[in-house]
Fold this protein.
Amino acid sequence: MMTSMDHTEIEGTLEDQNDRELEQIEIELLLEGIHRFYGYDFRNYALPSLRRRIWHYVHAEGLSTISALQGKVLHDRECFERLVHNLSIPVTEMFRDPNLFLTFRENVVPLLRTYPYIRIWHAGCSTGEEVYSMAILLYEEGLYDKARIYATDMNSRSLQQAKEGVFDIKRMKQYTKNYLEAGGTRSFSEYYTAKYNSVIFQPFLKKNMIFAEHNLATDRSFNEFNVIFCRNVMIYFNDELRNHVHGLFHESLNHFGILVLGAKESIHFTDYSESYETLDRAEKIYRKIK
């Protein structure tokens, strides 16, 4: 015989299941509305991370449901832009994972010296710390004058900060440490000027940088590159979108072009795994061979 406790447990389980189903429907409708109205496609982002960020923003806007957020986002462009910023901003810092930049300096730079002209794409550049890191590295290796660095992101607010090259002075101690561990050959403070609580990087570092909005989920290839950096971006994508982006990168890299991924990312288990050889397994540096 079923007890009242059994009934309560079953009702609670069914209620939880209904809540989860309703939440998923709300998320799918929100993302579909954003895609159809604004053209930004988050539909193939990994659900657990996306769910946390959406709920964080629901509460930040003083709302109680995802459906309420959908209504506000579709009728308020500024609300939408704040949501995009919330969904797309990753953690970054200059010379993040210093050994990667040291390995790039030692093993990839000699390959770049053989080219008359170098194009590098930082896809998902966020606020630009990685872009300025690359500019400094190329400058120290005598390659910056023949290089163009293309820095793209879908987040217009982050991209604007990257263009300005202004960062919090409190982070310079960590950035200096990273720079030295990455094989830096000068005094890091030579590259920026301190003013109040911020620093601005020297204008000569920006002269060969090109900043542009680009959405990896929906936009096409726009040039041919010798190097593509896309680190800690695809960890937020599901398998379908991840494979799509790898197709975009494969199309955009020239023969023997270099692809650099994040520590938790890999070319393996994609349709393009056979198109690359591994230059450094630990640092996720690959070279396109076909």
